[in-house]
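Long-time lurker, first post. I've been practising inverse folding by hand and with some scripts of my own, and I keep getting stuck on stretches where the structure tokens seem ambiguous. Below is the full token string for one chain I'm working on. Before anyone asks, I'm not after the true native sequence, just a reasonable design that respects the backbone. If someone could post their per-position residues I'd love to compare against what I wrote down in my notebook.
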């Protein structure tokens, strides 16, 4: 791809289309990557990149690739993925029995737990809350 193509030239080189398959997605993502690798972009390239980004976003939303997991379910996934033991979380919950109670649904996560979990896992505490606030009651936070 030569430098400083016009918007029309960008459209001609890789005409944007609705992404309907993984192959379409890969081709569109490759085009995005080439532009991003270029570094500083012209206004035409930025506009074109925005268009491709919208197409990729719509495709990904339709794929439902990652379910909205949060709260205790997210905690269980993190524990499993990082091969942790309940005793590894004692600094957060104070005792192993509290860790067990939380994981078994006998106790709810507190705001303090969530803050400490965010620090422990080096993530924003927000990830422990549902994306859809209507599910807040099922979070198990006190």
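-- Answer (accepted) --
I ran through it position by position. Result:
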């Amino acid at each position: 791809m030569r430098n400083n193509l016009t918007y029309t030239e960008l459209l001609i080189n890789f005409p944007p289309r609705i992404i309907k398959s993984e192959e379409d997605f890969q081709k569109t993502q490759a085009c995005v990557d080439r532009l991003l690798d270029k570094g500083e972009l012209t206004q035409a390239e930025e506009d074109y990149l925005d268009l491709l980004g919208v197409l990729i976003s719509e495709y990904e939303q339709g794929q439902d690739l990652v379910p909205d997991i949060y709260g205790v379910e997210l905690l269980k996934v993190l524990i499993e993925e990082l091969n942790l033991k309940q005793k590894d979380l004692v600094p957060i919950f104070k005792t192993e029995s509290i860790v067990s109670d939380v994981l078994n649904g006998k106790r709810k996560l507190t705001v303090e737990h969530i803050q400490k979990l965010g620090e422990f896992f080096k993530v924003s505490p927000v990830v422990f809350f549902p994306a859809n606030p209507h599910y807040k009651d099922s979070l198990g936070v006190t």
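A couple of notes from the structure itself: The chain has a mean pLDDT of 86. DSSP finds seven helices and no strands in the chain. Happy to go over any region you disagree with.
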